Amino acid sequence: MADAKRPSERDLAETERWLVESPEVEAKALFEYLLATFPDRIEGRALRTFQRRVSEWLRRQRPPKEVFFAQVHEMGECVQTDLDQRGTSSG
């Protein structure tokens, strides 16, 4: 059985245009817009499929997120010095 009322390639092309222009727009808001604009092309129960497709598109288009590991240094927990502690020779 074909998915007659799932978002089509035409709908996804329009979605991509929206995402390029306004990347902060959520998939659910775009889906609701498409549903209101083209009720004969999309069925309301296809939201999760649409969200997955938008998520996949965003993963391919956006640069990878920077990995950041916060470091907490407690005073006195660890000491490291560069001083040379050699004794002096008496002579």
Structural class, judged by helices and strands? mainly alpha
Count of helix runs:
3
Computed CA radius of gyration, to the nearest angstrom: 28 Å
Largest sheet: none
What is the element string, with H for helices and E for strands? HHH
Q: Give the rounded overall mean pLDDT.
A: 78
**Helicity, as a percent range:** 40-55%
Question: What percentage of amino acids are in beta strands?
Answer: under 5%
Distance between the termini: 98 Å
Q: Report the strand count.
A: 0
Low-confidence stretches: none
Summarize the structure.
This protein is mostly helical and 91 residues long. It has a domain of 47 residues.
Structure commentary:
This protein has a domain at 14-60. Helix content is 43%, strand content 0%. The chain has 3 helices and no strands. The protein has helices at 9-21, 27-37, 47-61. It is rod-shaped. The protein starts with 8 loop residues before the first helix and ends in a 30-residue tail after the last helix. The mean pLDDT is 78.
